[in-house]
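Entry 14. Ran structure prediction on the chain below.
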Amino acid sequence: MKFNIALLPGDGIGPEVVDQAVKAVNAVCKKFGHEATFTKGLVGACAIDATGDPFPEETFQTCMKSDAVLFGAVGDPRYDNNPTAKVRPENGLLAMRKKLGLFANLRPMETYKSLVDKSPLKRELIEGAEFLCVRELTGGMYFGEKGRRDNGDTAFDTNLYHRFEVERILKLAFEYAKLRRKHLTVVDKANVLESSRLWREVAQEMAPKYPDVTTDYMFVDNAAMKIVTCPKFFDVLVTENTFGDILTDEASVIAGSMGLLASASIGEHTSLFEPIHGSYPQAAGKNIANPLATILSAAMMFEYAFKLKAEGKAIRDAVAASIEQGYVTEDLAGEGEKHSTSEVGDWVAAHI
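Output, structure tokens:
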């Protein structure tokens, strides 16, 4: 098969970790007889510097013409502490999600046996924990009407959801639950928020259509506690945009490092695959960042965009082997030997 892949390295460590994912993709293509063509695009702070736009039209067109998008990260300290900035790198990420129709973010959380003791949670709580977070990505407060009144002293953000947005994300979550352990947890704040009451109403209407899936409902504050006290309870967790943003970052620390967790954003057009960590500007250019989350995002690309399970598994097996054998970057090495970003990328590609 031939794949056209848009490469959006972005800011900070993005270019370094995306380079390692490309090595893994090329190794898989060589092993399984595929061919990948990569086209680079600008997004985030680097795009603002070059064009004034964090998601330029040229980048959008590159994404639309591609079979998948492999993305690094956006963010720059120049903007983080400047509340008056009129355009920010993160605006590029939101624009990309909206224009590509990426309404669903999939974040798998899994643990590795050799890293269990690196988790801040007790071994008996997390050993064997593995679940999928499905986050709605193009609605809610991040996209609702927002503004200031009273000379800027009053601010508002509108948590707006339409029925069709709720239905399509819940349908996806139910379908993934059917393919897994048949347990779906709908997370909301229906005791307080009208938008959450819509979510719960729609979920209760849809649940009978999936009789083989056990569906339960949980307030977001309870879910936040349950993720750290009993993570093995969850199979598929689905929630709205803001709650999902917070809960998935909370879940990410269970594995012991944010540098291990990949994600996929899927929807109406080209799907996008990215690590969940940010641009980590403090490490940019130092060749020390953990590339495994980005490499695992490439595995998800083969599995979800190209429907090639064996190819994805080849990448996952190589990542698991690098962790098991201690060929890792400094965040995972502990007292062991520390390897650079590029060395880990080379090792994984060679193992594939």
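The CA atoms of residues 176 and 320 lie 24 Å apart. Will compare against last week's run tomorrow.
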